[in-house]
């Protein structure tokens, strides 16, 4: 746990999605084009390790999170927990209101609140990817989705092409989760 509720909630969403996986889940397709559940897990864990390393906890991932191998992960829960614990420890030392907080993203200077929200966005959206790929309920609650919308709007455009796909057109009936997903290039109605 950190002093950052948004990040704690996003980390819990990822833990819950991983805990809900069965032995036949790992090679299933996901909303992340051409990535399996295993690759999304490797990417999500690597991103959290990247935040931790940038903030001075650990050295970051030992692999490129944007080129996950897809090789089986021996203990997925422990693999996930190691990354989330490193991220939580790193962000626990980040003071609210701090400016120009280090981050592993090619973005302009950001406040503590924005860097925390970016890390939370990554964890929560990949939790959704894994959950929908494996028939689990969406972890994107209305509150979590609404809290993540501002950072998605602030960061997605400069990261399109390597971190996010092109935004999808919104629908009048979209709730906060659907708005968030469409802005990040994901179809809220995606099915395996």
Automatic annotation (TrEMBL):
Q: Where would I find the Mycothiol-dependent maleylpyruvate isomerase metal-binding domain in this sequence?
A: 8-131
Q: Kindly give the InterPro entries that the UniProt entry links to this protein.
A: CHP03086, DinB/YfiT-like, Maleyloyr_isom, MDMPI_metal-binding
Q: Check the UniProt entry and state the signal peptide residues, or none.
A: none
The name this protein carries in UniProt is TIGR03086 family metal-binding protein
